[in-house]
Each structure stands twice: as structure tokens, then as C-alpha cells.
From TrEMBL:
Protein name: 4-hydroxybenzoate polyprenyltransferase, mitochondrial
Membrane topology category: Multi-pass membrane protein
Phylogenetic lineage: Eukaryota, Fungi, Dikarya, Ascomycota, Pezizomycotina
InterPro entries, A to Z: HB_polyprenyltransferase-like, Prenyltransferase, UbiA_prenyltransferase, UbiA_prenylTrfase_CS, UbiA_sf
Cofactor(s) annotated in UniProt: Mg(2+)
Gene Ontology biological process: isoprenoid biosynthetic process; ubiquinone biosynthetic process
CDD domains: PT_UbiA_COQ2
Localization, UniProt: Mitochondrion inner membrane
Stored HAMAP family: UbiA (MF_01635)
Length: 371
């Protein structure tokens, strides 16, 4: 191929200077400035958040598509909250049962009613929470795809659905002795107002504790204990309720660490934000408070060694292990301990109470036979 003929003033220029000499200093400055401006003003590519996809595994995947948003609204696929609501009911039933020599079958049927009520009322509470938070949830990564936030359910339909759940909860409550209605009804005020707490205080977990722990009181009238006429039982119920409040604040503080960054951006208050730097110290204080109050409830109700060793000792060990090992900077780790801590601590407290109830029931039965 013929070579290109250069202009006379470039024919003697060394090749390595050729590219520079073909431009004037003004031309170089112009092109360099344009390149820098172009780079500075071009936004960095961002990865869009994943879009909603219907569940392909688990319980929800077997439901009709039109039912899935409502199942998600009541967290049917995340039952841990229902268990946390149920455990205080179970604790109080087992703690109160020896006071009235409640037969095991009666205690079991009462426990199953409480479990059904916990699932129903927890679902209603989740729906109420999502209605209050429908303008906040879209700004938090973990909640932005909730049914109301993504507009899969309108607020009106959510209200109607919640009303249906509350009626179902009332039907379950009416299966208990009549006194339970008067003890349980005030909890509805807490269920309805808890979502507001995160807007006005850094301690909404305390309000959640007041709400989720209510079953620690209702278990006593459920097995026939007259709290107003029995000072020891009233003290036991109050101490057990306070212990469960401390437990709720503890586990929900760990839960709140999953959203700590998004909560700060969205202006949502939580105890995790307020005490981020000293979270483990706060958790330790809550654990000691919880176990001390639990022991006080046992003393007031006349519990025996099985309770103090199994329930109080077991709770102290499981809570200590959780607080030591949880990685508060890991969303996955916080979630694991929130879910499994429910069964670890709730399980050992329940087993200790059940063992104590069994021992005392046998002793009462033997005493009745020899009388």
C-alpha cells in the first residue's frame, strides 16, 4: 500500500513526538478538559434493587396467587413472631396451673387455644403495623416488598382483612373463662398504637414488650386463678409479665440491628440506633433483669427446684451464649439468633416450668390420695 505523504514541516519529526506535535497546546487542553468533565458528570452505574417475585418454595408457594399477598401480610411464612407471642401465654399457664391443680389435659387444651390465638392476633398486629408504616416500608430494604408497600393490597382491603382477623381472635378469646376477656381486651390498645412508638421514641421495643408479653397475665385467669383475690398470684403474674417485657426488648434489639442503616435514613427510631456502641452491655443488663424477674415470679408462685434450675438457669445460659456470639454487624447472623433464640430461651423456660408443674401435680395428687 502507498505510504501517506506527511506535510513538509512533519517529515523530520521523530515518530514518538508525532502524536503530540499534531495538536497545539490549546487543542490538548480543550480535549483533556472535555474528557475530565465527561468522566466527572457521568453517574456511576447502580444496580437496581431486585423486583418482587412470587414464592417458589415453602408454604406460600402452594397457595392460590390471590391469597399470597394476604399470607405475606400476616407473615405466615415467618412464624417466629407468633411463637414469641405464644411463649408468655405458655409460661403463665404452666406457672399458674399448680395453683389450681389444673389437670394436664386442661392445661394442654388451654395451651393449644393460646397458640391459635397467638397466630391470629400476631397476624392482625402485623397488618396494623404495615398499615401505619405503608409510607415508611418502601424506604427500608427489608420491608419495601411487603404487600401494602408494593401495592399488592390496598389499605382499604387490608383494613377489612384485619377486621376479620380481630373477629376471629374474639371468637377464640370467648372459648376461655369469661374473666379472660376483661384481662385480654386492654391489650388491643397496645396492638393498635405500637407502630406509632417508633416515630416518637428510641425505645419502641419497650412498647412492643408491653404488647407481646400480655399473655403472661392472661394465663392465670385461663386456668381459674383469681388474680384480684390472690396477692401471691398477682405478684407472680406481674413479675412474669415484667420478665417477658425485658426478654422482648432483648430479642427485638438484636432484630433491630438488621435495619439499623435503613432506619437511620428513614428517620425510624429504635433502641439499636440509640445504643449502637454499647449494645452488648445493654443486652447483658436486660438478660440479668429478665432472669431475676423470672426467679421472682417462681418464688411468688411457690415453684420448686426444677423451675429454678431448668427455667432460670437455662435462660441464663442460653441468653449468655446468644449475647456473646451474635454478630450485630451481620444481618444474617442477627436473623439467625432472633429465630433460634426464640426456641433456645423460650424452650428451656417452658421445659423447666413443665417439669415443675409435673412434679407439683404428682405431689398434690399423692397428697389427695393419702388425705
Amino acid at each position: 500500500m502507498p505510504q501517506a505523504i506527511l506535510p513538509p514541516h512533519l517529515q523530520t519529526t521523530p515518530p514518538r513526538h508525532l502524536a503530540l506535535t499534531t495538536y497545539s497546546p490549546q487543542s490538548l487542553a480543550y480535549h483533556t478538559t472535555i474528557k475530565l468533565l465527561s468522566t466527572a458528570t457521568t453517574p456511576a452505574p447502580t444496580t437496581p434493587p431486585p423486583a418482587y417475585t412470587p414464592p417458589t418454595t415453602g408454604l406460600l408457594s402452594h397457595l392460590p396467587p390471590s391469597w399470597i399477598p394476604y399470607a405475606e401480610l400476616i407473615r405466615l411464612d415467618k412464624p417466629t413472631g407468633s411463637y414469641y407471642l405464644f411463649f408468655p401465654c405458655l409460661f403463665s399457664t404452666l406457672l399458674a396451673a399448680p395453683l389450681t391443680s389444673t389437670p394436664p389435659l386442661t392445661a394442654l387444651s388451654t395451651t393449644l387455644l393460646f397458640l391459635l390465638g397467638a397466630v391470629t392476633m400476631r397476624g392482625a398486629g402485623c397488618a396494623i403495623n404495615d398499615l401505619w408504616d405503608r409510607n415508611l416500608d418502601p424506604h427500608v430494604a427489608r420491608t419495601r416488598l411487603r404487600p401494602i408497600a408494593r401495592r399488592a393490597i390496598t389499605p382499604f382491603r387490608a383494613v377489612v382483612f384485619t377486621g376479620t382477623q380481630l373477629l376471629a381472635g374474639l371468637a377464640i378469646l370467648l372459648q376461655f373463662p369469661p374473666a379472660c376477656f376483661f384481662y385480654a381486651a386492654p391489650s388491643l390498645l397496645l396492638v393498635a398504637t405500637y407502630p406509632l412508638a417508633k416515630r416518637v421514641t428510641y425505645y419502641p421495643q419497650f412498647v412492643l414488650g408491653l404488647t407481646f408479653s400480655w399473655g403472661a397475665i392472661v394465663g392465670f385467669p385461663a386456668v381459674g386463678v383469681d388474680l384480684l383475690g390472690n396477692e401471691s398470684a398477682m405478684a407472680a403474674a406481674g413479675l412474669l409479665y415484667s420478665s417477658c417485657v425485658a426478654w422482648t426488648v432483648l430479642y427485638d434489639m438484636i432484630y433491630a440491628h438488621m435495619d439499623i442503616k435503613d432506619d437511620a435514613k428513614a428517620g425510624i427510631k429504635s433502641i439499636a440506633l440509640k445504643h449502637d456502641a454499647e449494645t452488648k452491655q445493654v443486652l447483658t443488663g436486660l438478660a440479668v433483669t429478665q432472669v431475676a424477674l423470672l426467679a421472682g415470679a417462681g418464688i411468688a408462685s411457690g415453684a420448686g427446684p426444677a423451675f429454678f434450675v431448668g427455667s432460670c438457669g437455662g435462660a441464663l445460659v442460653t441468653l449468655g451464649v446468644m449475647i456473646k456470639r451474635v454478630n450485630l454487624k451481620s444481618v444474617k447472623d442477627c436473623w439467625w439468633w432472633f429465630v433460634n433464640g426464640c426456641w433456645l430461651t423460650g424452650g428451656v423456660i417452658s421445659l423447666g416450668l413443665a417439669a415443675d408443674y409435673g412434679v407439683r401435680y404428682i405431689q398434690q395428687d399423692d397428697a389427695a390420695e393419702t388425705a
